[in-house]
Amino acid sequence: MKLSEALEQIDGMIDLVNALIVKNQPDSTEAAIRQLRDGMQAFAGLAQRFGAEQFTPENVQRMQAMSERLTQMRGHIAKVSAITAQQLATLIPEQSVSHTYGASKQPGATASVARMYHISG
To answer: From which domain of life does this come (predicted)?
Structure first.
């Protein structure tokens, strides 16, 4: 296999990942993340698999363009993940300990008695 053929395969994988990201569905995004990781590993391993004569100026330029695309896609997935986490946090807010153990008026102090066991009397 030549470097240009390997680059063609990785380029096809990048196009597939991009199509999965555009769908913007949880299953497709998860598949895109797996494919992107595999593509980045394959891309990173190119230098060890091919001799210096295969790294022509055309191939090097193509690799730089692919590297930029991979970086942009990784950044996009990170942004989508952060947005999803924020949306999830608004839908399911984190429960505070004060619901069970009572909130203290002093900052940094912890409640000594759980509310559910506190008997007022």
So the answer is: Bacteria
Q: What is the pLDDT of residues 22-73, one digit of tens each?
A: 777 777 777 777 877 887 788 788 878 888 888 899 989 998 998 898 888 8
Residue 72 domain-assigned (yes or no)? yes
Q: Would residue 36 count as lying in a domain? A: yes
The CATH number for 86's domain is 1.20.1440
| 38's tokens | 């595999």
Contacts of 116 (CB under 8 A, 6+ apart): 100
Residue numbers of the domain that contains 83:
3-94
Cα-Cα end-to-end distance for the chain: 83
